[in-house]
Amino acid sequence: MSQLAKFPEGFLWGGAVAANQLEGAYQEGGKGLSTADVSPNGIMSPPDFSMKDFNLYHEGIDFYHTYKEDIALFAELGFKAFRFSIAWTRIFPNGDEQTPNEQGLQFYDSVIEELLKYGIEPVITISHYEMPVHLVKEYGGWKNRKVVTFFERFAKVLLERYHTKVKYWMTFNEINVLLHAPFTGGGLLFEDGNKDEQAIYQAAHHQFVASALAVKAGHELNSELQIGCMIASMVTYPYSSKPEDMFTALSQDRKTLFFSDVQARGHYPAYMKSYFKENGIAIQMEDGDLDMLQQHTVDYIGFSYYMSFVASTDPEHVKQQTSGNLLTGIKNPYLEASEWGWQIDPVGLRTVCNMLYDRYEKPLFIVENGLGAVDTVEADGSIQDDYRIDYLQAHIREMKKAIGDGVDLIGYTSWGPIDLVSASTAELKKRYGYIYVDRDSEGKGSNKRIKKKSFDWYKHVIATNGEDL
Name one GO biological process term (predicted). Predict the structure, then answer.
């Protein structure tokens, strides 16, 4: 790494959230029911359409009513960018309406104006782990081609309304999670939990086309817009130098890279065509789909990075499983793990940056990275989260090295700058924020915001453009 490596001028430091994890107000402003509203136990659990159980997503941290105070805190942190998502069900409550819900749009008008007031760049994810329940029940989710049209309408409404105010967009959050959490990723339901790969990959194709249509619409409105894809990214190491382990690791990584390959390169890769053939998967395509994918590729690669994985062909090694960000893998003996078993690998972030940039030669945007941990409020009211500072510090150091390696990095929006409801477990005990929210997993508490030790630390990092960690 060059000793002169620096974060570029205008680097987008900030934080990232999702509508369903912090807004609350799930029945206000004309909002319809989303898949998150019927997932009380997190995104890996089956949905509960009866809605009998308490669901923390319904209340979130009440950002719907506190956004002005919260954005003021982000401004105090010195944020250059704030990544958030727009709830599909606030704009089209059922998903298949012809005209949008103006009340829902007005809420996001206000959020965007508030960000711009402080000079914070809004970064919008169009679809982040929620879609209208009506589209699941009536159409079967993303396996139905009609949903492409509904999404295109939704995306166009947002792009037309905000293209003069919002430069950075992402189409689908962690689009590859469709493989692991098909209900959350695509509104897909399977009997007895048996995942039907044909349906999953058909849904993926529909999302690829929908994403390309959004890119097309955005660029037609404003050629300066930057519209990216977003993948849940990780690197997979072979457990040993055994050649079979190496190929297994490659195959594992391809499951993720397939999703960015199609959106960034504009075509289905040969390895995936081979996989489809071997597994009897036949994707139904319409005339013009492949041209659409080829002509309307994304401008940048957005990705989350929390951990790395290990792959092996040895049954004894395969038994040593650990979990992380909706996936499981083999435990890496060289790494420590978070309280939730997510293995901590800062060097893996540098590796992923290099791997993605080598592959696509398009700008990268790290739009999620952070440490979920149990925080304790001390007797004096302080929260000493040095463990979070250590985690972020190590990852930012490796980002800087990646820039020194020649990687074009747009920005870094760490996950959950304010505590919010966990996607994987639907609890608040697992906290990511620089800002503590006095609310527990049962929804009890004052909802008061408290700055953690990491607040001042990150503020200083941003103020020095990453020079002083």
Answer: carbohydrate catabolic process
